[in-house]
Amino acid sequence: xRAIAIDDFGAPPALHDLPxxxxxxxxxxxxxxxxxxxxxxxxxxxGYLKDAMEHxxxxxxxxxxxxxxxxxGPGVETLQVGDxxxxxxxxxxxxxGAFGEYVTAPAAFIAKVxxxxxxxRAGALGLAGTAALDAVDAIxxxxxxxxxxxxxxxxxxxFAVQLLRARGIDVIxxxxxxxxxxxxxxxGAGNVVDYRGDLAAVVTAIRPDGPDAALHLAGxxxxxxxxxxxxxxxxxxxxxxxxxxxDAEVQIIPVMAAPTTETLDRLAAAVLDGTLAVxxxxxxxLADVPQAFADFAGGTLGKLAVTVD
Length: 309
Ligand SMILES: NC(=O)c1ccc[n+]([C@@H]2O[C@H](COP(=O)([O-])OP(=O)(O)OC[C@H]3O[C@@H](n4cnc5c(N)ncnc54)[C@H](OP(=O)(O)O)[C@@H]3O)[C@@H](O)[C@H]2O)c1
Fold this sequence. Notes:
It is built from nine helices and 18 strands. The chain folds into two domains: about 1-125 and about 280-305, Quinone Oxidoreductase, Chain A, domain 1 (Alpha-Beta Complex), CATH 3.90.180.10; about 130-255, Quinone Oxidoreductase, Chain A, domain 1, CATH 3.90.180. By secondary structure, it is of the alpha/beta class. The strands form four sheets. Strands 3, 6, 7, 9, 10, 17 and 18 form a seven-stranded mixed β-sheet that branches. The N and C termini lie close together (about 10 Å).
């Protein structure tokens, strides 16, 4: 099968011809139709996870996928051959990935694609959608509260802004250009702050007591924490630890996205009920994933999608 893989730590991602993987117990084999780029993929490609995870080279890149179940491994009872599915490749080691014609992945991190959810959008929903939903759940915002989203223009941020709006939250979003400001306002942000300027001054002018909570998806997490009102919560997808913030009145909650079937079902339901759009800025063919990586590194407006045909 064709797949985008790396042969060594930091080696350039390139199109490979590899054997089709076989599902082990608890896994299914999926014929991939759609995927998308996440920051994790670039980190793996650069070799940043060398000491964090076992690498089985050639390592196929890609976390998100949507496609059709081709085979099921022993013990899988929730999915059947022919099911339209989407999910995230969650394994303790790196080796199988979604940027290929086929991928094996645990059924526990896969959901069925409901009628009405386009496969291209399902393929861009899994990891960033889960990170956004888990981060929003972590701060447990109440209707009428104000939440600052730092990194609102990225994939996770674009989902988070919408999920917050659906819960009746006033969103202050970061953006660094007129185009990006229009993008986050369209998603539901009531106020927008250019993070290249004096973020603290502008946020304080909008909300003198500080926002009730913040999502740390980019930028300086400790600075976000000091901006929050007493009793505030900061959810961080960037590993901000409670120890790194002196202000004991603000709760820091590290978020590790857990794209379980239940969470993926919640995301799909939000798309179907119209509260969550999957904003795809651009779509790339499988062979053009290296170009997608370069574009992702240059700044994003929502998701960069990949089609596999
Ligand atoms: N812990 C987990 O399980 C988990 C899961 C998914 C993602 N993540 C992490 O969460 C982060 C967000 O993911 P993503 O996929 O949304 O990444 P992304 O698409 O690259 O988005 C990051 C966004 O942050 C903006 N930004 C850059 N510097 C900023 C600053 N100083 N202040 C405010 N915004 C800034 C960028 O906007 P510009 O275009 O203006 O540069 C970009 O739109 C990444 O670091 C990713 O690795 C973690």
